[in-house]
Amino acid sequence: MSGRLGVVLVHGFLSSADTWSPLLRIIETDADLVALDPYTFEYPSPPVSLSPLRRIPNINDIADSLRTYLTNDCSDHSGLILVTHSQGGLVVQRMLARTLADGGGPELARIRRIVLFACPNSGSELALLLRRGGLWRHPQERELRPLNQAISDAHRLVVNQIIHATAVTAATCPIPIVAYAGESDGVVTPVSARSVFPEVGVLPGDHFSIIKPDSQRHRSYVALKRHLREALSMTDAPAPRPSGDRLPLTTPSARATADLYRALVDRLLAIPRMTEPAFREQVYELLPPVIVHQLRRDTAARVELFSLVRSFASYRHLAPGNSLAAALETLVPDHPAVADVLDVLKSAGLADPS
Fold it and tell me: Are 20 and 135 within one domain?
């Protein structure tokens, strides 16, 4: 649907698509947004599951479901904007992180903007002692607690490889993200909602009323409409392209390069202890410092190593492939997996043939 923007609304914890009804009613009567097609992505978030044949999905399950939904149900739209409430923002961030971990950066290029309302980026402390000490065991609630590692990892990857990205690659995709907090929100504090996103704001309302505007003049709607109109103006624009002299990943040569990088990462991961952060630190200490500086750290070894080998092409003059080869031969001498890595480095021209 050229010229039309798909808007995907993602609800929060213990909620449903019905939570968007007030907002949808206003969007449908707004003459400025006639080129917009709203969608509501719904996922199960019941308080409990009473059936032994059904389970409550965790955040990873929901994130993968959202990715499938965007691929299939929204396939007609070249431009999308994602609007989330509360836990929905964590779902979207997990979807972004998992897509990038799969090398799917170009898949995300049609997302023009993401708007987060009251997202618990740092968790929610509401009734935390009761939630931790009670008998309630909910797979989604666990990830709403402060200092959750999986949430922190996904958030860090999104900041580094989405917010601060400059090009569409297998592991990066620049997408503007704006985060709004509710000034009276007792569930998600403004500090948690805004987190470290560069574009933030505070709107009137509590955790639930922030997404329930009663008119087009409601400040939440005014803020959202501005982002929708900006995204609409971009719908016919070409998707972001890689910066510098890199080719888009849709070209055969770039795709071959991405495949080669994936092959190199696969072989690196086959080296004993490579999945251990401490071992990787030993390897990095023997590489050129500027290469390590470019590395955006993540707890997932595959994403980290993919970021590492992608940076080699920009610093060929420092012979980083030779440094990596020397590091591996020193730390894991005579291992066949190291020989496989050296073969790929040489075939890519990243290490001396000798």
Answer: yes
